[in-house]
Amino acid sequence: MKKLLLTLCFTGAFGALLSAQTVTLSGTAATTPAAANATYTLNNSGSFQYTPIEVKDSGTDSYFTADAVFSATGQYQIYRNSGHWKIGRVICNGCSTPTTTIYYTLTNNSTKPPCTGTWTKLSGGTEALTLTGDCVTSGPSSVKATVVLPTALSLPQLTAADITAITSPQKGMLVYDLTNNCVKIYNGMDWKCLTDQ
Question: How far apart are CA 96 and CA 92, in angstroms?
């Protein structure tokens, strides 16, 4: 069955972020392999070389270092899983099962990784890490295009405050409200959770 991928781009508040974008990570501890401090490229292709260690949250972006999964160095990844941004590494150098390690986590519901924050080290303690480039300074202010697949629809994800701040919303607009955990529709006057309709 031929897979159909349709990307719907929003203008204004829903400006599409479709060009190749990068984030540069710095500040990881000396005990973390130095290669983690690197430039990561946005890639949501879902091929083996570009699949997050865990299933990433719908509507979020994932970032990868150079395609080195099959090398001894491995590939570093930044992605969000269950509301937690994670930094990890996957290695598959002539193996049948990849070796994976998660180094850092940070609870944040942004669709893109936070530029700054106190990350929890899986080895213990915390670390202040800095990302520059395609990251967000506060809250989920960056919005992806809506993607329609044969089996799923991924809506832009925003906080309730960001939703009410949308200028000139059009009747029938849909977004996912991260604050109230519901799909919201604009009825021409107010944003309402679909469960309230």
Answer: 7
